[in-house]
Amino acid sequence: MSNSMKKLSSYLHSLSQTPHRLRKRMLATWTPDQEFNQVRHRSGADMKRKLNWYDLVALGVGGMLGVGVFVTTGSVSLHHSGPSVFISYIIAGISALLSSLCYTEFAVQVPVAGGAFSYLRLTFGEFFGYFAGANILMEYVFSNAAVARSFTEYLSIAFGENDPNVWRVEVHGLPKDYNMLDFPAVAVILILTLFLCHSTKESSVLNLIMTVFHVIFFGFIIIAGYCNGSAKNMVNPKGIAPFGVRGVLDGAAIVYFSYIGYDSASTMAEEVKDPFKSLPIGIVGSVLITTLLYCLMSLSLCMMVPYNKISEKASFSIAFLKIGWSWASNLVGAGASLGIVASLLVAMLGQARYLCVIGRARLVPSWLAKVHPSTGTPLNATVFLGICTASIALFTELDIIIELISIGTLLVFYMVANALIYRRYVITGHAPPSHTLFFLFLLSLSAICFSIAWKFKQQWWGLVLFGGFMIAITAFYQHVMLNTTIAQHPQQQQQQQQHWSVPFMPWPPSISIFLNVFLITTLKTLSFQRFGIWACFITIFYVLYGVHNTYEAEEIEMGGVGVVGDEMNSSVHNLQTKVEIQVY
Fold it and tell me: Where found, per UniProt (predicted)?
C-alpha cells in the first residue's frame, strides 16, 4: 500500500472516531504552567523579551488611532448623535476600558502570546478558545485588508487627488467590488510584513515614531478646531443632542469600532520585560489616551462646522475647506495615511502572535507556530498572514463584511468577560461552578431582553425592569461569592491581591458583558446571517481537522498530558506560582 493510501486510511479511521475525540478534546483545558512552558516550547525558540511599558502604550494607541475616527465621526454626528458625538465616544470608551481590564488580568496571570485564544482555552476548553481565536484572526485579516485599501484613498488625497480610485487599476470582466486592483495597498502590507519578520523591537520603535507623529497631527486638528470654531455650533441648530438619548447610544455602538485594536498589546505578553507592571499600564493606558483624543477630535469637528453641515465622508478634510484652510485638507490626508500605517503595523504584529499560539495547540498546521531562532519572531505565521491580507486587499472592497468583523470581535470580548468571572470565582476561588454558570446565564439573558426592548422601542418600564434585574443579580452574586471565597480560601485571597487584578469584581466584567450584548444587537440582521456562515465553516474545520490533530498530539503523543474539564480546575491554583517565577 502506498504512503498516500496509508494516510487516507488513517484519516478515515480518525473520522470514524470523531464523536469520541470531540468528547475528549472540546472541553479539554490546560493549566497556566502547561500553557507557559510545555505548549510555548513547541515554537522551538522563545520570543525575545525586549518591550517596555511605553512600547505597549504606543502599540495600543497606534493600533486604535487608525482610520476609524476619520470614517465614523462625520457619519455619526450627522445621523445619530449630533454635537454630542463626544458623549458617544465616552460611552464606547467605557465599554472598551471594561473589556481591556478583563484582558489585562488574564495577560498578567498568563503572559503568553495567544490573547483571547489562550484565555478561553484555559477557562472553558479547547473549542471555545479555537472559536475565539478563529474570529479574532478573521477580524484581523479582513480589517487589515480594508484599512490597507483606505491607505490608498487617503494617500491620494494627500497628493491633491479627489478621486479615491485614481491609483487603482480597473479590470473589466471581474465582478463589481472585486474589479479595482489596489497595488499600493499590497505594497504597504508586504513592506510591513518584512519589517515584522526582522524584529519585534525595531517594529515597535517604528510604531513609536509613527504614533508620536500621529498624536502631534491629532493635536493640530484639535487646536485648529478650537481656534477657528465656535461654541455656538455645539447647540445650533437643534441643541447638543438633536436625536435624543437613543441617538447618542446608537452612535456609541457605531464609534465603538474605532477602539478595536487594544487587544493587540495583550498578544505581546511573551515579549515584555516586566509583564506584571507593563501590561496593565500598556493596555489600560492606551485605551484612556485614545478615548481622550477621540473626544477632543469630535469636539473640534463639531465646533468648526454645525452638525447638520458636516460631510459624511472625509468630514475633517471638508471641515477645513469650509473654514478656508484648503491646505489643511491635504495635511489631513497625509496624517490619516500615517495613522493607517501605524494601525496596520500593530494589527499585523498581533495577528501573527494569535496564529502562532493556535499552531502550538495543533489546531492548525504546527509549522505556523515556529519562532525564528535569530529574530525571535513568529516568521512563518507573519509571512502566511501577510500574503493572505495582501491577496484580499488587492481585489476586495470590504464594506459588505465590516459588520461581520464587528460581531465576531464583540462576541470574543463578551466571551473573555464571561471567562474572567468563571476563572476568578470557580477555578481560582473554588466556588461551585453551577452558581457562577447560572449567574452568567441570567446576566446574558437580562442583557438580551434589555437590548431587544431598546431595539424595538418597547415601553420604558421594560428597560428599567431588565436593567434593574441585571444590577440586582450582580449585587447578590457578589455578596454570595465574597462570603464563599473568603470563608473557604482566606490565604488565596491575600495572595491574589499581591498581583494586579480587576478591582470591584464582578462589576467590571458584568457591565462589559451587558454592553457587548447591547452593541451586538444594534447590528443588522444580515451581519448575523453572514456570521452564522462563518461560524459553520470554522466549526466544520475543527471537526474535520483540528480535533483529530490535537487528539493525536495530546492524548497519544503526550500520554494525555492535557487535563480535561473539572480535573484541570482542581490543579490550577497549585501551578499558578510556577508561571510567575518563570516569567523572568
Answer: Membrane
Other CB atoms within a 10 A radius of the CB of residue 297 amount to 24
Q: Which three cell numbers stand for residue 481?
A: 461569592
- CATH no. for residue 321? 1.20.1740.10
Q: Which range among 77-91, 465-479, 491-505 has the greatest average pLDDT?
A: 465-479
**CA 56, 44, 144, 328 torsion-angle sign:** positive
Does any domain span residue 432? Answer: yes
Cα separation, 253 vs 501, in Å, equals: 27
Grouping H, G, I as helix, E, B as strand and the rest as coil, residue 272 is strand
Domain total of the chain: 1
CA distance 227 to 300: 9
Q: Are strands 563-564 and 180-181 parallel, antiparallel or unpaired?
A: unpaired
Residue pair 68/96 in contact (Cβ under 8 Å)? The answer is no
The C-alpha cell at 568 is 484541570
At 63-116, the pLDDT tens digits run: 787 666 777 788 888 888 888 999 999 988 898 899 888 988 888 887 776 778
Separation between Cα atoms, residue 182 and residue 392, nearest integer Å = 10
pLDDT per position as a tens digit, 442-456 = 999 999 999 988 888
Tell me, yes or no, whether 215 lies in a domain: yes
Query: 138-162 burial, b for 16+ CB within 10 Å, e for fewer?
Result: bbbbbbbbbbbbbbbbbbbbbeeee
Cell of 222: 484639535
User: What is each CA distance from 111 to 76, 119, 482, 579, in whole angstroms?
Assistant: 37, 10, 27, 8
Query: Cα dist. 517→56, 115, 252 in Å?
Result: 28, 21, 13
Residue 69 lies in domain: 1-539
CA atoms within 13 A on the CB side of 336: 28
Partnered with residue 371 across adjacent β-strands are 44
Q: Residue 583: what residue type? A: V
How many whole angstroms from its chain centre is CA 561? 30
Distance CA 113, CA 266 (A): 7
Is-cis flag, bond preceding 175, omega within 30?
no
The answer as to whether 519 is a domain residue is: yes
Cis peptide bond N-terminal to 506, omega within 30:
yes
- Give strand pairing partners of 44: 371
Which has the closest alpha carbon to 221: 103, 304, 311? Answer: 304
Cell of 70: 476619520
> What are 240's three cell numbers?
447638543
Q: Is residue 570 part of a domain?
A: no
Query: Which H or E element spans position 452?
Result: helix 433-455
Q: What is the chain's mean pLDDT, rounded?
A: 80
Query: How would you write 191-215 as a 3-class SS string?
Result: HHHHHHHHCHHHHHHHHHHHHHHHH
Longest dimension (CA), the chain: 84
Distance CA 276, CA 111 (A): 9
